[in-house]
Amino acid sequence: MSDGFQIKIEKTEKSNLGSIDFSNLPFGKFYGDHMFVADYKDGVWVDARIVPFQNLSLSPANLSLHYGQLIFEGLKAYRNVNGEIVLFRPEAHLERINKSADRMCMALLTEDVFLKGLYELLKVDAAWIPNDPDSSLYIRPFMIAMDEGIGVTPSKTYKFMIITSPVSKYYSEPVKVIFEDHYVRAGEGGVGFSKTAANYAASLYPTKLAVEKGYNQLIWTDAKEHKYIEESGTMNIMFIINDTLVTPALHDSILSGITRDSILTLAREWGYKVEERKVSVDEVVEALKNGSLQDAFGTGTAAVVAPFASITHQGTDYTLAPVETRTFSAKLKQTLLDIRLGKAEDKHNWVYIVN
Q: Number of folded domains in the chain?
């Protein structure tokens, strides 16, 4: 990062902090006092600033509204045992948002804009970071096209922003999931590996149908044959089958999860057999039937590790072992939390302390 990169700071006249009940933090409902903003014009990022959280003014012909040039990331800030502000693998989030930007023909972000902008915003709104280890400050960096025009073409101007939200647990209890064998989240050659709005828009209707049937989330299958497992809801997915950690191999319809990568690294260090490969629906259903499926869970920044209570396939509900008996996923979740909080050794330099 450049020492000469300047960020203007305009602080709010009245904080909303006093109106927030930190013992009751629904996910994504409350927002920090400030946001970071930068504009991309003539090939460079300019006018970096921290301003009070506020609405945007957009032309009705804004390209992001019509053609979906919108990408985002999600990460969290915590307080460690020493009271310091910490982030988990922020450089990996910069790398991933730039992969999304490249796929969506958008401007690439620099370390100054993404990382320094984030660090300075956290310093300004440090009081918004919860002290409860089960809570955190969720961070949403995002970029939108800013050109005006009703024509299918990439924008030449962009706006990058970071907003924050104090949150508690994403899921309060184990998740009930059902295989999706009709609707598609993403296909090969598409934008499934990108964190772009289109992926999430495509998931809304089938997820709504599943929720109406009493499930929390879907297990997405491949777009061609619905034979192979890809993700679960907005998370990567993992199974323990016969003492082996099995997860779908990454390709262009699966998001490269940072939590996923961290879990695979830990599992290998602990001596577990790990397989990244195609995982068929039939294989998992058979493992459910014969009892060789010992654990199943989703992974992601929001939920970290979300154990499945049950998996449904073609009308049959398969109940998994009680969560309290599943030592592996519990150890994973606790270890990741301990690394973030400074209670466990950070061998990989995953944690960044915001001074």
A: 2
